[in-house]
Amino acid sequence: MTIKEYIKARKEEIKSEVLKMERKPSLVIVQINEDEASKAYVKGKLKDAAELGINARLVKLPLETTEKELMKVISKLNKDKKVDGFIVQMPLPKQINEENVKLAVAPEKDVDGFHPLSALNPCTPQGIMNYLHHEGVEFLGKNAVVIGRSNIVGKPMAKLLLKESCNVTVLHSKTSKEDMKRYLKNADIVVVAVGRKHLITKEFEFKPSAILVDVGINRDEEGLHGDIEPGMKVALQTPVPGGVGLLTRLALMENLLKINSTK
Ligand code: GUN
After folding, report:
1. Which of 48, 110, 112, 214 is catalytic?
2. Which of 50, 74, 108 is at the close of a domain?
3. Mean pLDDT across the stretch 154-177?
4. I need a labelling partner for 180 at 20 to 30 A (CA). Which of 3, 15, 22, 260 fits?
């Protein structure tokens, strides 16, 4: 099933789950940036919520908001019984420490899965795993290569693949092209999250059975591009746009429902 078909089917399931609920789940998104990618994400998340019957609201704070002021907003949301879950959209302006913010969100409301005590996983890796499971991908003993080591994607992705008993290698933007080629040649599952247009080109060799997951969203005058050149000769390659971004948004709604089901 393509990602678009999968999303459509899962949304129908979620919609009917929400319809059965006495009280609609509620989500708050706090945004303190003018980042283009964030704007697109937030717009998409609000659209998904509306479509699924979830109450979602955006709290936009000025760019000069201090960490103390944000902490006050977070503390209020933590206590607000009408709010089931909330996220603070990243990136944050430089006067605010992201790690402090992640720790301030109450773990039971942390739909992003960023808090170390959160029972949930970050949305991008979780969304990717859900889709790969749905597609019947086998993990046990497979060679998985994650390129990228961010706290939001690379590191949690490696952890989830390890949990599925993959042999996990984490590479990054400082890995030499020669080494990258050497690892990728033997890879069964590849997740690329560096943020560099077409970092992986047709010049790289892959197994025909390989699965390539492209987390990159790189915008230039020609439009949106992934970290992987399109049209690789492999078993599965996720598209950009219309790929991992949709899986991430879906995972956020699924995380919100998980919070509600454990109440
Ligand atoms: N910025 C990019 N992706 C994400 C995400 O999944 N959650 C939050 N809060 N910010 C992001």
Report:
1. 112
2. 108
3. 98
4. 3
